[in-house]
Amino acid sequence: MTRHLTRLGRDEQGATAIEYGLIAALIVIAMVAGLAALGGQTTNMFNDLSEKIDNAIV
Fold first, then answer.
1. Which of 29, 25, 46 is nearest to 37 (CA)?
2. Domain total for the chain?
3. What is the value of pTM for the model shown?
4. pLDDT averaged over every residue in the chain
5. Rg, the chain, Cα only
6. For residue 58, how many other CB atoms are within 10 A of its CB?
7. Which domain holds residue 47?
8. How far is Cα 42 from Cα 8, in angstroms, rounded to an integer?
């Protein structure tokens, strides 16, 4: 039993997986924040473009 616990204490695969998970989560949070910041500007750009196309057609 002690051998099993010692081996389990040395195993670092779980820690590595958690680290990669945290890095992926931080990347996703940064992407969401960036999209939220640019979302309004992008919407305004497409609305302006749509108005210009409507005015050009009419």
1. 29
2. 1
3. 0.53
4. 85
5. 25
6. 5
7. 1-57
8. 51
